[in-house]
Amino acid sequence: MAERTADLVGTTAIAPAPVVTMRAAAAITPGGPEVLTPTLVPAPTRVGSEVLVRVVAAGVNSVDAKTRAGSGVSGGVATWPMVPGFDFSGVVVESPYAEFPLQPGDEVFGMTAFPRTTGSYAEYVAVPALNVARKPSTLSHVEAAAVPLAALTAWGAVVDLAKAHEGQRILIHAGAGGVGHLAVQFAAYFGAEVTATASTRNVDWVRRLGANRVIDYTSEDFEEVLGDFDVVIDAVGGDTGRRSLTVLRPGGHLVSLPSSSWPTLVADAAAAGVRGTGFWVVPEASTLAVIGRLITSGDVRVMADSVFPLEQAAEAHRLLETGHVRGKVVLRISDY
């Protein structure tokens, strides 16, 4: 059973290194959630500028489930079984050198180099130093593990691409999702007039996050009641993206996050008189640190909806694939 997020801030004991094997959840072959099973795998070895981190919690993302199923970033998986996972929060075990800013014992969060390396559904990760930032002191490891990929994606879409600013009209689809609930907050923080779509149970919650208007997609077709947006940020894809072309002003901008499912995005947007842009998250410690400061100041909140032990990674994927998650699903990897 999943447990709801509680106050999980604590001091993490540092495991001895080097470690030969570690607990992990691995997909033995592409397939459904049932292929994701607890196992022992070789522990990573830190090299060069990498940081070795003992993982306390790992975020679960849609791309993890897609990769497990044989799509997503599975083309970069060299061999199966594979350990998925981008997001992590944990404690530094080894640093590149003695004067490096992050030292053993420091609490950090960030993104792995999955699928080029073992992912974060494991007790240890070795990651590029540029992928790691200090964990906000106000967050537990479980909460921090829900941040990196979703927050960096939301920031890239809202700040880097949409350049959110006062007076701008932005529509954000899936406003209660992992990316969406952060995108709503970033857009509101920078002064945009935010409209979002969400299910019935999430309408009030998304409004409290900063949305000026929330459309219940279970009872209304957004394209029938909305229009003249400067920017649409679509975290859903498929038909939702195509319908969104009709609610943009001439010259408006559609940012499609699951753009791999829409190979003609740019051409279709141009034919509709607007601009279409795909996006893929870039791990960047400096941006993650800025996001961490917004979280610490209370300007941005993160939601970890449900927490599963590592051994129940398959159940976490089943919940994620229902499409009815508020914020993020997280795996608790180890005690601390």
Name the features.
336 residues; alpha/beta; Quinone Oxidoreductase, Chain A, domain 1; Rossmann fold; seven-stranded mixed β-sheet; six-stranded parallel β-sheet; 10 helices; globular
Short structural summary:
With 336 residues, this protein is of the alpha/beta class.
Radius of gyration: 20 Å
Any idea what the CATH superfamily of the largest domain is called? Medium-chain alcohol dehydrogenases, catalytic domain
- The first-level CATH class of the largest domain is given as Alpha Beta
Total strand count, please?
A: 15
As a percent range, the share of helical residues equals 10-25%
Q: Total domains, how many?
A: 2
Level-2 CATH architecture of the largest domain: Alpha-Beta Complex
* Count of helix runs: 10
- Estimated share of beta-strand residues: 25-35%
Shape, principal axes of CA atoms: globular
